[in-house]
TrEMBL record:
Entries under SUPFAM superfamilies matching the protein: Multiheme cytochromes
InterPro entries in UniProt: Multihaem_cyt_sf
Protein name, per record: Uncharacterized protein
Length: 258
């Protein structure tokens, strides 16, 4: 009788342990033991599985889709940008006998990339992965970058301040914020603060008329005054709109004056 009781108790304990422990040994996800083969040449991990939104955008672009030898987005296009930095060691396995694998160092699968990695300016303008940008001057703004923005002056470029501020910002790599704002369909919202008025005084010169007859005017007290604020919304189609208000007759339509 005692032996039967012990056997029953042991059975209950085993069942209880099974109820508690066995569920934790069951695979949580279907497919989690079916590994991708990374021993082949090329990029064997399906980037599009997690980054389908990027693939959809890239498939609508005429650029950066040709590294796979076709005109649509594929994994070779991903690798060209995000595994193409020669200063970074990425994890890899070429499938050769004896363990032809490489352990990742600065990055495992992919790295963030600066547009200027391929588009920086080179002295002969031929040693570039892509068309060189050039024509910028960010040094006047006290900004430095590991990439060459052009040594051919760039003093007259209207976007120098924009590029310099993008380099200082840490949201994206280097000046990528400025690059994508201008060159892609990303939406932008800009608050512009313009001067309200150009003000100056005009008086007679001495002599009043010039040798050829026209009046001789003098211009003094050349200043700017007031502020006109404009909020510009640039949408993904490339068109823009403003959120202004018109306060009194004579204003420029759509400008909010302060």
């Amino acid at each position: 009788m005692l032996g039967s009781s012990r056997l029953l108790l042991a059975t209950v304990v085993i069942i209880a342990v099974g109820v508690i422990a066995l569920p934790s040994t069951v695979s949580l996800f279907a497919g989690q033991h079916y590994w991708y083969n990374v021993n082949q040449s090329g990029n064997d991990i399906p980037c599009e599985k997690c980054h389908a939104d990027v693939f959809e955008e890239l498939n609508q672009s005429k650029f950066h889709v040709n590294w796979g030898g076709n005109n649509y987005a594929d994994r070779n296009d991903c690798a060209a940008c995000h595994r193409g930095n020669t200063s970074i060691t990425y994890a890899a396995d070429d499938g050769t006998a004896g363990g032809g694998w490489v352990s990742g160092k600065q990055a495992h699968a992919a790295s963030v990339v600066a547009c200027m990695l391929c588009h920086e300016w080179s002295p002969d303008e031929t040693n570039n992965y892509g068309p060189p940008a050039g024509g910028f001057n960010v040094s006047d703004f006290g900004v430095t970058s590991p990439y060459n923005y052009g040594t051919k002056n760039g003093t007259y470029e209207a976007h120098n301040a924009f590029i310099a501020r993008a380099i200082q910002d840490g949201t994206l790599q280097d000046a990528n914020e400025a690059c994508i704002a201008c060159h892609t369909h990303v939406a932008v919202k800009i608050t512009w603060n313009h001067s309200r008025a150009l003000e100056f005084n005009i008086g007679f010169g001495n002599p009043i008329t010039t040798a050829n007859g026209p009046h001789n005017w003098t211009i003094t007290s050349w200043t700017i005054n007031g502020t006109a604020t404009a909020v510009v919304w640039g949408n993904t189609t490339g068109s823009g709109s403003t959120t202004y208000s018109t306060n009194w007759p004579g204003n420029v339509p759509g400008v909010n004056y302060k």
